[in-house]
Amino acid sequence: MRRLWRGAGLLVLAQFLGASIYFLLSGSRRKKSPIPVFIDVGPVEDFAPDSVTLVRRGEFYLNRFADGGFLALSRRCTHLGCAVTWDRERKIFTCPCHASSFSRDGSVLKSPAPRPLDLHPLIIEKGRVKIDIGTRRRRTLFSPQQLGYPAGKQKT
Ligand code: FES
Description:
By secondary structure, the protein is of the alpha+beta class. The protein is 20% helix and 28% strand. It has one helix at residues 2-32, and strands at residues 38-43, 51-55, 60-64, 70-74, 85-87, 92-94, 101-102, 108-110, 119-120, 122-125, 128-132.
């Protein structure tokens, strides 16, 4: 009987390891996918300066700063991938899973998140904001160069 239980335990362990390896490999394949998939989220005027908008279609936050610059932040926490939420009152992103928090530009305020929220490339074309939901860029720091501006409004 003991051997039977041991065999069943090994079988469950093997299934768990197999599923874990599949999950890890499929995740790394997704990250390497460089195929841009731009979605049009609307005209620039739809996003007020100093606003944060959740775009569920691409699972990202479109963050427009007071100076008019845009940043598209992935909603996935950089710890284990839970969806972060925008806390409007404290003006920070928080993760419900292990309590990481991120500043408005996606920088880590509180670990265990190891790095800032990933970025989606964006372009502003003919007055419309377009986000590449097929690409997520890792970064180690926020830089003002990551912001996108409407034509003629770029900060110098
Ligand atoms: S998944 Fe966000 S803190 Fe762990």
